[in-house]
Amino acid sequence: MEKFTVHTGRGAPLRASNVDTDQIIPAVYLKRVSRTGFEDGLFSAWRASDPDFVLNKEEYAGADVLIAGPDFGTGSSREHAVWALQDYGFKAVLSPRFADIFRGNSLKGGLLTVVLPQEVIERLWEMVEADPATEVTVDLVEREVRAPGLAHPFELDDYTRWRLMEGLDDIALTLRETDDISAFEERRAPWLPVTQ
Amino acid sequence: MARTMAEKVWEEHVVRRAEGEPDLLYIDLHLVHEVTSPQAFEGLRLAGRSVRRPDLTVATEDHNVPTENVFGPIADKVSRTQIETLRKNASEFGVRLFPMGDIDQGIVHVVGPQMGLTQPGMTIVCGDSHTSTHGAFGALAFGIGTSQVEHVLATQTLPMAPFKTMAVTVEGRLRPGVTAKDIILAVIAEIGTGGGQGYVIEYRGEAIRSLSMEARMTVCNMSIEAGARAGMIAPDETTFDYIKGRPHAPQGADWDAAVAHWEGLRSDEDAEFDHEVVLRAEDISPFVTWGTNPGQGVPLDAAVPSPSDFDDPSARASAEKALAYMDLEPGTPMRDIAVDTVFLGSCTNGRIEDLRAAAEIIRGRKVADGVRMMVVPGSMRVKEQANAEGLGEVFTAAGAEWREAGCSMCLGMNPDQLKPGERSASTSNRNFEGRQGKGGRTHLVSPLVAAATAVRGTLSSPADL
């Protein structure tokens, strides 16, 4: 996983709430067995049907900080939603509230999801709509989002922050605890089912 | 200290706890399917890792499979590759697999309980958000992403962030014709699609206790639609009766020891929940959705709402967008909405009781002209049982299509899809834009409403027949 410390880029305003993962990437793209190349599926229905959709606007080409409404990433657990955002070029998503599974997936994969109050999201929308060249900085070190005339802290637990900053693989970390896992297995109840 | 059921199950599974780190939880059962696993197995292969506990892992083919001609190769090449990839991975890593055509194949959340693999007090995960279904047994069950699938395959554990607890109590008795699906749609409309965010919900109260296991699964299944991490119901005699005698249920002395343990799992009487919601069962009536998220629902007796009914600007904007997509006018009685398709199936409502309830309404009647009804059993065992009871004949005699098991039109990954502009009454769990096919419009309903709608051609309840 790529390390994340401080990222500065342009923002894409997605003025919508309840953007579910079926919108982020429709199920038809989930048939693939690869781990990359999902950018064509990102918001594919909206990109195909709505010329005014933010990613269809030339002025937001290359924007890599998605600024979204509340309840972003609801619905299906498909991690493909995170991969599609990353493959398309997004480094961070800002929203007043994320669905749990999507948030977990994003932070596993190094896509920084940042919770900001609705009014801060509104200000950022206004800023990047007034001037699409506005630079937005997502600073994981200081846990702060900055834009011209705006600096707002965000919360992220120390452990997740450390993991993202170091670009650490969760599995490797857990495998260090194999002795604890084996000891736990000794204590498991004998009636628990096995599949084979 | 008094604890809730969720807290007890969590505590029993902590492998490692360290200050400033998430708890490392042991996973008792890992369910796998073709869509969210290929990249996880590939990750293991690249890192030279193995599956730690193949004996706590089981795989089935469900999301992608056709529901016709299941004994031949899949026509769609990409789908076929994904199925073949799962078969190759299962064989290479020693994971038991129920392939298409196998009598034990079916939707992952139908297969686990029917085999007796789902038991109270377990931790259960799957790369699928509807894993919350298994909470109906008093298990702590949650959907995970592919990175976590790989993590569980490699370590049989997951680091998990702490959760909050919510009690949803449904007091009193349900009125006739009102089902578990109506309860959960009413709950989601009440708390919203983000209302459960960060919570494990425990469903309680007389109306919940009186539900069968299958109906309890319907309730817990859609916890994720309220944004919750998981949903649970305390195990009781109904639970034990359901599990007893199933292929993987404990036997003999193990059974007695298991039941004794399970009985201690329920929340302590003085346990405190972080949030409580109370509904009266008598107030719930057949519920249907009008919009493009599962929280946008109303009683069937009501009309399509107007965006101006919503005070919150974001809810108002969302309603406007939904009505445009659904092509609905505010004020239209829900009963006046005509559908092209009725879908009966899915991990929400594809079990034998759902098919029985719908068949009871359909028996001796015909699917309305111009309406297509598709009945997709949740598993091949469900299909076998339904055929043994003559339900398959009831559906086909009425003019419905009686298919093989799979996720089917719930998410339209196989050929079972709506065409652009088509409208369905669907017993599935999501009415998102394009969920059942690009441009398709979905109304979520109970099996009873689905059956009555198939007969009348407009959203209806059995009382309308």
UniProtKB/TrEMBL annotation, chain A:
Phosphoprotein recorded as keyword: no
Residue span(s) of domain Aconitase A/isopropylmalate dehydratase small subunit swivel: 1-119
Catalytic activity: (2R,3S)-3-isopropylmalate = (2S)-2-isopropylmalate
Keyword field: Amino-acid biosynthesis, Branched-chain amino acid biosynthesis, Leucine biosynthesis, Lyase
A Pfam family reported for this protein in Swiss-Prot or TrEMBL: Aconitase_C
Superkingdom in the source lineage: Bacteria
Family matches, as InterPro entries: 3-IsopropMal_deHydase_ssu, Aconitase/3IPM_dehydase_swvl, AconitaseA/IPMdHydase_ssu_swvl, IPMI_Swivel, LeuD
GO terms, molecular function: 3-isopropylmalate dehydratase activity
UniProt key word GTP-binding: no
EC identifiers of the protein: 4.2.1.33
Involved pathway(s): Amino-acid biosynthesis; L-leucine biosynthesis; L-leucine from 3-methyl-2-oxobutanoate: step 2/4
Family per similarity comment: Belongs to the LeuD family. LeuD type 1 subfamily.
Subunit structure, as described in the record: Heterodimer of LeuC and LeuD.
Described purpose of this protein according to its UniProt entry: Catalyzes the isomerization between 2-isopropylmalate and 3-isopropylmalate, via the formation of 2-isopropylmaleate.
Protein name per the record: 3-isopropylmalate dehydratase small subunit
Origin species: Nocardiopsis endophytica
Gene name of the encoded protein: leuD
UniProtKB/TrEMBL annotation, chain B:
EC number: 4.2.1.33
Keyword Amino-acid biosynthesis: yes
UniProt keyword terms in alphabetical order: 4Fe-4S, Amino-acid biosynthesis, Branched-chain amino acid biosynthesis, Iron, Iron-sulfur, Leucine biosynthesis, Lyase, Metal-binding
Pathway membership: Amino-acid biosynthesis; L-leucine biosynthesis; L-leucine from 3-methyl-2-oxobutanoate: step 2/4
Location of the Aconitase/3-isopropylmalate dehydratase large subunit alpha/beta/alpha domain: 7-457
Binding site for [4Fe-4S] cluster: C347, C407, C410
Catalyzed reaction equations: (2R,3S)-3-isopropylmalate = (2S)-2-isopropylmalate
Segments of this protein annotated with the region Disordered: 416-443
Cofactor note: Binds 1 [4Fe-4S] cluster per subunit.
Cofactor(s) needed by this chain: [4Fe-4S] cluster
One Pfam family matching this protein: Aconitase
Family, similarity comment: Belongs to the aconitase/IPM isomerase family. LeuC type 1 subfamily.
HAMAP family: LeuC_type1
Subunit structure: Heterodimer of LeuC and LeuD.
General function of this protein: Catalyzes the isomerization between 2-isopropylmalate and 3-isopropylmalate, via the formation of 2-isopropylmaleate.
Name of the protein in question: 3-isopropylmalate dehydratase large subunit
